[in-house]
Q: What sequence folds into this?
């Protein structure tokens, strides 16, 4: 019984240690997400930009990309600026999709799709740390806000992968 | 049965049906009760940014410009969720609490270096993905130097996303947490914004410069 308890405790420690290490190793001191702009011809509801901004901040907090996820336009201490990032982006394309095509053909035909370009900039000198090209596809019957959720997740995932390969 | 009595019977049915519809609509309209009312307050005051010359603020007035006919109704579905106070009162109290904690609140209007007039544009839940609740607080502040009369606008917004819930009790808890988070976020966005920093610097400079620049009497 004691041996079993010991093994269980050791396993628990092994599982939890990367999670604890992740908390301490936030890549940035602060990160600021800006509202993404929409390119000409992109027909999304005005509430979409707000919701995407909120979702992006939510995902950044969840992924612990920075010690502090600040709001748009917040001031940052000069000392923290070199270790801080700003995310800017543009929604370049949005296709509504077709419910009929989706239902009749299937296999992702007629799905709504959205493309966006995002840049992660260093706050102090505005140097580009990485550029992301996100393409999200979803069933046309689903709410566009779910698309925002998926896109925000993709942006943060892409950012983490891109920055992992770069020297700090 | 004669035609007249048939007509009278049909009219009575139509009247009864429309009355039934009216009553069911009235029954659907949620009413504020202690069990569906939430109280919003900041768990702890939001620390403000550091100013070169810390001014004393005074909140002169709060105006609701949201155009919401029921500002205290946060959620209409599932019996409704109501706020215990008007959004104007909640915002004012939260901002005063944070300013006081940072030592930036004047004792009265006469002792203030800068007066603030707040305009609420959104306070409550906004349209979300239907799987979660999207809380949003958006306001604009007119920061005025009472000595020079010069004023500048500072915008602030706070958002928060909370998951939905099956049970009413959990739903109410989630909505309350969501609203408190977005209120905190909006206050933080205002108190730590670059816009406020620039506005304070410009207005303080204005008050220093104005007497010197004024023509001699």
A:
């Amino acid at each position: 019984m004691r041996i079993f308890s010991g093994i269980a405790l050791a396993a628990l420690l092994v599982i939890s240690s990367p999670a604890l290490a992740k908390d301490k190793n936030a890549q940035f001191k602060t990160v600021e997400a800006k509202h993404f702009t929409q390119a000409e011809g992109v027909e999304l509801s005005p509430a979409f930009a707000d919701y995407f901004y909120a979702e992006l901040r939510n995902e950044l907090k969840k992924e612990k990309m920075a010690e502090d996820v600040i709001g748009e336009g917040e001031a940052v201490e000069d000392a923290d600026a070199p270790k801080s990032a700003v995310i800017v982006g543009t929604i370049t394309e949005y296709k509504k999709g077709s419910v009929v095509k989706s239902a009749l053909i299937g296999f992702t035909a007629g799905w709504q799709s959205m493309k966006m370009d995002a840049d992660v900039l260093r706050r102090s000198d505005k140097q580009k740390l990485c550029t992301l090209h996100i393409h999200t596809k979803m069933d046309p019957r689903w709410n566009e806000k779910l698309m925002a959720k998926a896109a925000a997740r993709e942006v943060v995932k892409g950012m983490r992968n891109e920055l992992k390969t770069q020297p700090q | 049965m004669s035609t007249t009595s048939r007509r009278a019977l049909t009219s009575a049915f139509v009247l009864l049906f429309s009355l039934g519809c009216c009553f069911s609509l009235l029954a659907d309209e949620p009413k504020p009760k202690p069990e569906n009312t939430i109280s919003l307050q900041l768990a702890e005051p939001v620390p403000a940014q550091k100013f070169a010359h810390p001014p004393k603020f005074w909140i002169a007035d709060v105006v609701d410009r949201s155009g919401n006919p029921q500002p205290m109704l946060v959620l209409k579905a599932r019996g409704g969720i109501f706020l215990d106070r008007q959004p104007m009162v909640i915002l004012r109290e939260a901002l005063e609490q944070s300013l006081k904690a940072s030592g930036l609140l004047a004792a009265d209007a006469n002792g203030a270096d800068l007066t603030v007039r707040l305009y609420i544009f959104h306070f409550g839940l906004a349209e979300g993905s239907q799987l979660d609740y999207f809380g949003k607080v958006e306001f604009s502040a007119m920061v005025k130097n009472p000595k020079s009369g010069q004023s500048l606008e500072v915008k602030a917004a706070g958002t928060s996303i909370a998951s939905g819930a099956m049970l009413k009790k959990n739903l109410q808890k989630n909505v309350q947490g969501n609203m408190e988070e977005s209120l905190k976020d909006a206050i933080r966005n205002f108190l730590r914004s670059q816009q406020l920093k620039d506005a304070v610097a410009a207005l303080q400079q204005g008050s220093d410069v104005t007497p010197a620049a004024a023509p001699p009497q």
